[in-house]
Recover the amino acids of this structure.
């Protein structure tokens, strides 16, 4: 059951007011497939009102706020998030089906984003440029104005932290469209932002359908920057829609991220990363490591040890804090099961059996050896499925690793320093990890992809450049 909330979850936050929508949608618990509550089905008109509320904030109190005060506000918000970690954890576990420990880590990460961007708000600035005699030239780093944030259901808290957190730090006013499958922590975060003293309209939240509210936000002429995380097809549609208004878009679209295990890899160190980077959040992670490339000399050993780890995993309801929770909905389960059909020609190395429904549980499966061109080795599955691909040489490993449409994250397991350096340079990927995977997901580390994984960078200081624009001022004084 849903805990008592200090706001009505069926309402939208627009211009500082919790507003009832014309229509609602039912939010359900993926662990039980039972209804949790009603949420807003924001209309095109609601989105329009939210954008105007953000414009008013941009042109009003929020737009006048100093960087120091924006930073203080975000720092206060981070503290409030920490004070409410328990309820945020419960909401995310019920809403996303995310095991409690993983949901808690996301809540703590949300606080960390607020702290990081709170601290960074007054430390980003323009430059002076040496120029011709008689001129003084400098640059000003300014907010875009109104930013749109379209967020998926898999990591709502982390994605809101990295995009809305950075956008607010730079002084933008935000309109946030959370996913129709999971929006409770977005609403709770907005309520905390009000408590922290964020002026009305600086953050507006309009839950609703992607094809209605999301599409309306993407095409709205009042939006000056869009941040989108989700599928390639939708990201591409959002970019095309925003193109009509010549609006910059940051796209974070997932991947087929490899871990490369060389003959000299420390397997004891690698094993937890090899498995957990694929199974965290039931594999519904843009940076999930779904391809394990293994030097042929270690193939049997890696397969056996990963199989052992798979068999020790437990799948169950999120509130029972299993290793792996349910998938978000029945559609996602069918999508993953379709990949099981496509894998019929592959050896199944290991399986962690799923409990029967009514929750949207699916087995975790490890397949291989597979050829690099197999559908399981090419397509994003977004479920608890990994595939082992053997290789014989460094060149071949690199070719396989770079041989998909994606390029989000890659990791290299080897003790050879020169090889680490060669691969870090040659891998086509937004992030490369050496003898680890993810480095704990630090908020400080710029994140984003190449190819169909998207473009633009969020997280770290880099996000602050993305959520701002640069003005050049040239003063001629003789
Ligand atoms: P999606 O890309 O359709 O949805 C992501 C967000 O975009 C949601 O808030 C949704 O409401 C919104 N949206 C949907 N259609 C829109 C439109 N026309 N205009 C503007 N916004 C729109 O993802 P999904 O349907 O929830 O999941 C489908 C697949 O996407 C998954 O199986 C997975 O492969 C992938 N996915 C990737 C990520 C990621 O982090 N990269 C996250 C979620 C889903």
């Amino acid at each position: 059951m849903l805990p008592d909330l200090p706001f009505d979850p069926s309402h939208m936050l627009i211009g500082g007011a919790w507003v009832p929508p014309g229509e609602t949608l039912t939010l359900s618990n993926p662990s039980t497939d039972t209804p949790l509550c009603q949420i807003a089905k924001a209309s095109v008109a609601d989105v329009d009102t939210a954008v105007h509320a953000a414009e008013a904030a941009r042109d009003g109190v929020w737009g006048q706020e100093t960087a120091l005060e924006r930073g203080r506000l975000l720092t206060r918000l981070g503290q409030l998030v920490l004070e409410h970690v328990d309820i945020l954890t419960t909401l995310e576990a019920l809403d996303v089906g995310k095991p409690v420990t993983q949901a808690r880590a996301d809540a703590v990460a949300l606080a960390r984003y607020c702290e990081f961007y709170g601290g960074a708000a007054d430390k980003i600035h323009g430059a002076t440029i040496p120029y011709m005699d008689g001129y003084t030239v400098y640059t000003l780093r300014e907010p875009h104005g109104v930013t749109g944030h379209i967020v998926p259901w898999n990591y709502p808290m982390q994605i809101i932290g990295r995009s809305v957190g950075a956008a607010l730090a730079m002084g933008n006013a935000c309109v946030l469209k959370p996913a129709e499958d999971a929006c409770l922590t977005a609403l709770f975060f907005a309520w905390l932002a009000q408590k922290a003293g964020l002026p009305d309209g600086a953050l507006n939240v309009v839950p609703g359908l992607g094809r209605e509210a999301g599409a309306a936000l993407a095409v709205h002429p009042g939006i000056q920057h869009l941040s989108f995380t989700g599928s390639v097809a939708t990201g591409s549609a959002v970019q095309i829609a925003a193109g009509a208004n010549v609006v910059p878009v940051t796209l974070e679209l997932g991947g087929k991220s490899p871990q490369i295990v060389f003959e000299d890899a420390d397997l004891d160190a690698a094993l937890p990363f090899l498995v957990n980077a694929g199974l965290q959040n039931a594999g519904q992670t843009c940076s999930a490591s779904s391809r394990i490339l293994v030097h042929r000399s270690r193939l049997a050993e890696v397969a056996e040890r990963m199989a052992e780890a798979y068999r020790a995993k437990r799948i169950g309801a999120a509130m029972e804090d299993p290793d792996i929770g349910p998938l978000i909905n029945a559609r996602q389960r069918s999508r993953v099961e379709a990949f099981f059909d496509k894998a019929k020609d592959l050896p199944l190395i290991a399986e962690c059996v799923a409990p029967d429904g009514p929750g949207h549980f699916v087995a975790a499966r490890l397949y291989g050896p597979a050829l690099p061109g197999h559908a399981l080795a090419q397509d994003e599955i977004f479920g608890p499925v990994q595939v082992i691909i053997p290789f014989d040489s460094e060149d071949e490993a690199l070719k396989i690793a770079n041989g998909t449409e994606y390029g989000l994250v890659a990791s290299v397991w080897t003790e050879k320093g020169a090889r680490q350096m060669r691969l870090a340079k040659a891998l086509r990927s937004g992030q490369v990890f050496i003898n680890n995977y993810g480095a704990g997901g630090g908020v400080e580390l710029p994140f984003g992809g190449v190819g169909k994984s998207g473009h633009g960078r969020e997280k770290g200081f880099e996000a602050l450049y993305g959520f701002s624009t640069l003005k050049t001022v040239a003063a001629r004084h003789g």
User: Anything to note?
Assistant: Residues 2 and 36 are 6 Å apart (CA to CA). DSSP finds 16 helices and 20 strands in the chain.
